[in-house]
Amino acid sequence: MRVRWIAGFAGVSLLLAACSGGGTSGQGTPVPRPRSTATISILEPQPGATAQGGQVNVRLELKGGTITTVVSTDLQPNVGHIHLRLDGRTITLLGSLDETVPNVSPGQHVLEAEFVAVDHGPFDPRVISTVTFTMS
Asked: According to the model, what pLDDT value does residue 14 have?
């Protein structure tokens, strides 16, 4: 079952603040990002694949991590969300490992899947997988 999140104003504010790559404590001291031992892989599309029909089926594998729908500042190293980006633009926040991306224009594209912490900020180092494919 696919889970899509529609964030309210507070959620969007937290997302934008977290996605900047880090935060600061109340005194302005940088807060280190957690380290995760999880790995993520894009199984579909395969590198160099050609998709047809204007949509691409995405299948991911997450090892050593747990996907949650909870947004929190209580960071755990192997619990988080998946951000899916097409050509550098976040297109969805996944609650599963399978997705169909519609309305993909013809040409070459870069797909990224990143496992991020529950505050939507990246782990350090980032847990990310990238593949290039072509839409015919």
From this structure: 38
pTM: 0.79
CA distance 123 to 61: 17
> Cα dihedral sign for 74, 59, 84, 88?
positive
CATH number of 9-135: 2.60.40.10
Q: What is the DSSP letter of 118?
A: T
Q: What b-and-e string marks burial along 79-102, b requiring 16 or more CB atoms within 10 Å of the CB? A: bbbbbbbbeeeebbbbbeeebebe
- Over 90: is that where the pLDDT of 15 sits? no
Helix spans in the chain (H): 9-18
Q: Where are the domains of the chain?
A: 9-135
Q: Mean pLDDT across the stretch 112-135? A: 97
